[in-house]
From TrEMBL:
<feature type="transmembrane region" description="Helical">
    <location>
        <begin position="95"/>
        <end position="115"/>
    </location>
</feature>
<feature type="transmembrane region" description="Helical">
    <location>
        <begin position="221"/>
        <end position="240"/>
    </location>
</feature>
<feature type="transmembrane region" description="Helical">
    <location>
        <begin position="261"/>
        <end position="282"/>
    </location>
</feature>
<dbReference type="GO" id="GO:0022857">
    <property type="term" value="F:transmembrane transporter activity"/>
</dbReference>
<feature type="transmembrane region" description="Helical">
    <location>
        <begin position="409"/>
        <end position="430"/>
    </location>
</feature>
<keyword id="KW-0472">Membrane</keyword>
<feature type="transmembrane region" description="Helical">
    <location>
        <begin position="467"/>
        <end position="486"/>
    </location>
</feature>
<feature type="transmembrane region" description="Helical">
    <location>
        <begin position="170"/>
        <end position="189"/>
    </location>
</feature>
<dbReference type="GO" id="GO:0005886">
    <property type="term" value="C:plasma membrane"/>
</dbReference>
<comment type="similarity">
    <text>Belongs to the nucleobase:cation symporter-2 (NCS2) (TC 2.A.40) family.</text>
</comment>
<feature type="transmembrane region" description="Helical">
    <location>
        <begin position="436"/>
        <end position="455"/>
    </location>
</feature>
<dbReference type="InterPro" id="IPR006042">
    <property type="entry name" value="Xan_ur_permease"/>
</dbReference>
<protein>
    <submittedName>
        <fullName>Solute carrier family 23 member 1-like</fullName>
    </submittedName>
</protein>
<feature type="transmembrane region" description="Helical">
    <location>
        <begin position="321"/>
        <end position="340"/>
    </location>
</feature>
<keyword id="KW-1133">Transmembrane helix</keyword>
<keyword id="KW-0813">Transport</keyword>
<dbReference type="Pfam" id="PF00860">
    <property type="entry name" value="Xan_ur_permease"/>
</dbReference>
Amino acid sequence: AAQDKVSLRLQNYVSSCREPEGQEQKSHDISSASEDRNQLTYLVTDAPPWYLCIFLAIQHCLTAFGATISIPLILSEGLCLQHDSLTQSHLINSIFFVSGLCTLLQVTFGVRLPILQGGTFSLLTPTMAMLSMPEWECPAWTRNASLVDTSSPVFKEEWQSRLRNLQGSIMVASLLQIVVGFLGVIGFLMRFIGPLTIAPTITLIGLSLFESSAAKAGTHWGISAMTTLLIILFSQYLRLIPVPVPAYNKLKKLHTSKFYIFQRISILLGIVVSWLICYILTVSDVLPSNPAHYGHLARTDVKGNVISDASWFTFPYPGQWGVPAVSLAGVFGLMAGIICSMAESMGDYYACAKLSGAPPPPRHAINRGIGVEGLGSLLAGAFGTGNGTTSFSENVAVLGITKVGSRTVILLSGVFLILMGILGKISAVFTTIPDPVVGGMFMVMFGVITATGISNLQSTDMNSSRTIFIFGFSMFSALSIPNWIVKNPGSLHTGVKEVDHVLHILLTTNMFVGGFLGFILDNTIPGTKRERGLPDREHEDVSDKFSASLELYDLPFGLTSFLSSQSWVRYVPFCPWRDRDTDGRTEDNNVMLRRGSELSSHGEIVEMR
């Protein structure tokens, strides 16, 4: 009887493991439906109709809106500009203009993928560490609005001297990215930079900005909490609810179409609704008009006549704040941010290629993309944005949502960003956003940046004590060491003032301390490739699995055909060469492609977000 029971259970188990034909057909149908759902509407080289291009380009600009205006608003505090809204608007104009210019360069001559360029938070942390040094600390009178005369030559010199030093330091630091990109060194570097280096670095970018978030949100916790809740409501709870909008085409004529507005522009919607409520509370005098009372900064009339004082058109140009100067300490700190930005951009390239139906970018395209980003940071420094440029992960995610991978759309987005940088009134409007509304937006954005950094650990073995030790020790040390040095500013004395400044900036930059410790430990403590999060198999040739071919990475205007006839081109790391692309890949390119599967996981996280 016992044997019969065992036999019966074994038969039932085998039967349950055997997939019925109907179930197999059902699985096939589900797979086909999934493939249809993931089918791209427009590929990288396609050009959608002009009206659709305009709509999608505006959508990309709005997606980048929050991160773009956040950087000048945060920098204004370190530059002593918290009470000079007109200069803040000029900084916003400059960063919009340079972002559009760099987008055109990247899509046309860089990696040639539909990827938007903009300011980088990777440079924000070392910048704030540089501006917090004793010699660059803002005078007390610049923090008092009643004592600040924005037209005074003394006040102008206070903030322009800081910005000029920041400009020159960014320009010199960007040379590292230019050299690494155009000399093809990035493939060699990425062999040693794994998730246990990238994860603490990006995570600490978000964590190090908590003071700025709390300072602005604390001006009125009720308004900031409302802004945060609205963004969470729109981006998480209502993101899959479509809104019917009128549409027209030749087949259906005038009809309604579903538009996922809450998913597309959730941050902008949260800001606008909170902004409107603040305006109503200001008009009705619910918010206090006395600057000494709590909640005054939530009023929409705090910034005075900044909109009327701003010109309709402004044209940013290199050296608009004077001749750039260079701080050696600032250069080394910003180089740490540049390295972090390069690692993040690598992941964005692979994620963008995956979401736009393109094959993984070859070595020459990645080298060119990193090099052009370095040129973008050089331009950003020259124009005086106070920041560099990098690829926007948020806009990579939009490709997966809209199923439109056309780089024509991104080119048009670059043109729109340039126009936004020229229209002075638009940037002036952005500076009137109440501080608690900005603080509520920061709470969400910097939280997502922190979580995005941690998500890089998904390719490592989280059950390994090695992984837990390296990440935990790197994070805790990166919070402890800078905190102690800030509280004991006179503790670093080497006898050489310049060396003291370099060490002060590096050791007070959380992301440098965490990334450096993660890099050293990950490359010295023995561990398997699985523990380190590095792929241990060769990357297969996948170019035939994609709708687009590797030719989309060629240089424009027939330059590739012209250069292919020159034998010396094979030795230029950023130039495509037909024989190399079609007949085989070099060892460095195989390494880059193997890293693609790992680095593109960052893009998948952003897409889900």
